[in-house]
Amino acid sequence: MTARLSKWAGSAVLVALLVATLVPFFLLIYFSFKDQIEILVDFWGLPSALKWENYSAAWDAVKASIGHSLYVCFVTVLGAVLLGSLSGFVFARHRFPLRGLLYLMLIGVMMIPSLLNIVPLYAIINNLGFTNSYLGLILPYIAGTQLLGIMLCRTFYESLPQELSEAARIDGGGEFYVYSRIALPLSLPILVTVAIVTFLAVYSDYLWPFIVLSQEHQTFTMAAVGLNRSGRTDIGLSFAAYIVGSVPTILLILFGMKYYIEGMVTGAVKA
Amino acid sequence: MNTVRWKRYGLSYLFLLPSFLFIAVFLYYPVILAFFHSFTDWNLVQSKWTGLHNFRTMFGDSSFRTGAVNQVIYTLTDVVKAIVFPLIAAELIFLIGGPRIKYTFRTGFILPMLLPGIVTILLWQNIYDPNNGLLNQLLTLAGLESWTHAWLGEDGTALWAIVFYNFPFIAGLPFLIFYAAIGNMSQVQIVAARIDGANGWQVFTRIHLPFLVPQFKVVTILTIIGSLQDFVKIMVMTGGGPGVAPSNPAMIMYNAAFGSSQYGYGSAIGVSLFLVILALTLFNMKFLKTDY
Question: Which CATH code is given to the segment(s) B53-291?
């Protein structure tokens, strides 16, 4: 009896927590279809008609910024995947002096809190003349995001049988041939994982673009904050814009989940 | 023979060069700059050595002291938030659940993670809005109009509004960590305890909680490190004000550097926070080691 009672009480608490968790989510969708006047006058009332114009106006307001974000994400992902796999390959398959120390130097970077570097990194970007340039985002992003790739790829390439690269060498292929034609294709699931993690982190970043870029080059996160600040706040339009701008992350998580988990599992099992 | 070997070594170093160039310029060099310029008056182009002046300013600055006290509040509440609610949710899911119910609830709780973090911050800014915010509208609906506030704009409420941001604090990594750990628990002990007449509460306190200690440690240290560095939500929702009411040291660092161009002073705050984080990490590593 008490067991059943506690089960009911537990369910009630759980449902309450779930509803509370999803309130902002519902609010986002609900207001994105509501007219600004209706929100002001009748907060709780259902919209008299679904206001799809919010979405067309929102698309016009943020499409350029989404394009900027996607550009930065793609270039960063490319850099992170290339550098991560190349260095991971070298650490896994080559023997050379100072190998252990160099690897520690790379991984040790993760001990540096990002907060410490905000001010001096801005100085470096400023002195390189990269303020208000996408390079001011992309280059530091690649520096940080390649590390996950190096670690995962190293583990994976160490697990590949030595015979594969021996065979390639006998056929006359050089080191770069082994890397690009054998290691790289085999590690595709790992690289997809690296790409997804990198993309999500870069797309969601607000602070660094806000520091480096001016408004005409703004990323989606900057545009989203700008919509809330510009004085002409139209809640319906802003919320529709938040949804439009979230589409890339939503799609990537939903469709990439399989690769993401697969890559993680492969990396872990083969280790 | 030797030259052949060094030729191969050279190739390895050549392949590693791009990675090391990137971390040298964008990760190691900034650290050196931060430490050096924490002792200078710096406008990004020129700097003047001022010794410990920035650190003295920091400890003498009443805004910084307010920020430090706020940080203690943020960090303590962050740890409680990261453990209590996600743990309750994960435990309850396993208490009530068949597989489908479990899946539904788990998915529901992590659904907000689909949105970029900045969107969640902006949604909460809207929830706290004095006129069109959900919180004030709810209070008005309940006849508690006198309880309404400009939550983010008043001295007395801004800090707590930030603390209660993202209530009930479940959508996030700690929830997934606890959920996975509880799912992986061996059922043998629990069944044995049940046979011996243990009730649900005893199973939870005597078996689950001790089993979850490693997860508590990981979540705690990750939360503390994150808490010391997190100021984006404070910046976006309040800009750090009114005054410095909801500011933490990281927010004050940002405003010193990018608001009033005191890059040296900002570096000094950054270095201080780094030292605190380092000390906590080392303490935690040692702490973890003695236990296992």
Answer: 1.10.3720.10
